[in-house]
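User: Run a structure prediction on this.
Assistant: Running it now.
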Amino acid sequence: MTYSENLWLYFTLLFGIIIVPGMDMLFVLANALTGGRGRGMAATAGIMAGGAVHSLYGAIGVGILASLLPSLFAPLLFIGAAYMVWIGFTLIRSSIRVETVGDGAVRTDWRAFRQGAITCLINPKAYLFMLAVYPQFLKPAYGPIWMQGVIMGAMTLATQFAIYGAVAFTADRSRTLLIVNPAATILIGRVAGALLILVAVLTAWHGWQTEVSFSAGGN
């Protein structure tokens, strides 16, 4: 697998996760509906700031693991792939329904930014994602881990901006899509689940091929 193919797989996974309606998306939508596009974008910026922090510690953690405990790197890849498959099947089997978008308690753009960052930073699923999934795509064979982390972090922020920013700018239509038409949110979740499973299988297969090649070379 080339580095470009690796990044495409990461983007596919990332897009599938972010596009699924969840707390971050509803937080942006609630702020946009009650405070306008500016407040919705402030909430988006806060979530992006939290995502940048997650990307930073994810890259640092993978770099430490690859340098100090290289023997654990491959098993972590397979554990992460299994976790991705589990998430995928959960999304496919679930029926995502959005009942409400909140009451607009946020009153200022700064508060929307701050709460968006905190919401992202305290999300336990984000930590689990960084520990189990992020290492799938940060590999010493592709060059310095920190540089790969910068690139993937930028991709994460750009994807968050594109999706959540679109929600903020089209708040009324987004609300209709998420609440009035529940079939759309269910479909989004199931498509995202299928993408997760596909990416997990591909990354696990590549990891297995790498291990086989390494073992053969060692013998």
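Residues 3-210 form one domain.
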